């Protein structure tokens, strides 16, 4: 976390301003490119982490005296109190509304 992205999306954010006629569409494209690269980075991180866990688990099954480098933790009960006031919401719809509001403010 707190890591600055590199690559095309980071370079386009720091680029010189474009002519007024193309600046609006370019900013939307840059936002999309940035979110796609962040999404790809998150997918790569989760996938890589999961593959390490699976490999550790399989190595533990094949020997290594049944010892794992990764400890698995499962919480038994007690978590229902923590979720008493939780109200789920549609994150995709919320994100869409935010994007739409930004789009309207720019035009």
From TrEMBL:
Region (Disordered) residue spans: 1-35
UniProt KW Cell wall biogenesis/degradation keyword: no
Key words of the record: Cytoplasm, Nucleus
InterPro entries named among the record's database cross-references: MCRIP
Cellular compartment(s): Cytoplasm, Stress granule; Nucleus
Compositional bias per record (Polar residues), positions renumbered to this chain: 19-35
Any single GO CC term annotated in Swiss-Prot or TrEMBL for this entry: nucleus
A Pfam family of this chain: FAM195
Family: Belongs to the MCRIP family.
Designated name of the protein: MAPK regulated corepressor interacting protein 2 isoform X2
Name of the gene: LOC112690767
């Amino acid at each position: 976390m707190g890591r600055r992205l590199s690559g095309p999306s980071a370079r386009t954010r720091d680029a010189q301003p474009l002519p007024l006629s193309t600046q609006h569409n370019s900013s939307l494209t840059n936002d999309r490119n940035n979110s796609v690269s962040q999404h790809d980075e998150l997918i790569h991180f989760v996938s890589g982490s999961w593959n390490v866990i699976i490999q550790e688990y399989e190595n533990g099954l094949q020997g290594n005296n049944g010892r794992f480098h990764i400890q698995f933790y499962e919480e038994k009960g007690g978590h229902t109190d923590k979720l008493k006031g939780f109200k789920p919401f549609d994150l995709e719809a919320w994100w869409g509304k935010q994007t739409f509001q930004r789009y309207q403010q720019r035009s």
